[in-house]
Amino acid sequence: MDNSTAVRKALSVDGFRSNNFSAFATALEGMRRDFEVVKPGLHGGVHRAIGGTRMHSHSSNDPVFSLHHTNLDRL
């Protein structure tokens, strides 16, 4: 599955069409209401697509990390 298809699929989750924050948050993480993981979620999917590791304390200093989380806040 290419990245554009993955993003379209992630945005089609019902939680993004809801005014309920809980439904939106679980959709953003790539889960359904029954907490079954739907791959990829917009949050974790981008982390996986970019690569790298979260193990380093300086990972959050990466500009791509900042842009990604700023975009999630925008959503």
UniProtKB/TrEMBL annotation:
Q: Which domain of life is it from?
A: Eukaryota
Q: Which GO terms describe its molecular function?
A: oxidoreductase activity
User: Which InterPro entries does the protein's record reference?
Assistant: Di-copper_centre_dom_sf, Tyrosinase_Cu-bd
Write down the species.
Answer: Tilletia indica
Q: Can you say what this protein is called?
A: Tyrosinase copper-binding domain-containing protein
Record SUPFAM superfamilies:
Di-copper centre-containing domain (SSF48056)
Q: Which Gene3D superfamilies match?
A: Di-copper center containing domain from catechol oxidase
Which residues belong to any copy of the Tyrosinase copper-binding domain? 13-75
What does the record give as the organism's lineage?
Answer: Eukaryota, Fungi, Dikarya, Basidiomycota, Ustilaginomycotina
Q: Which Pfam family, giving just one, matches this sequence? A: Tyrosinase
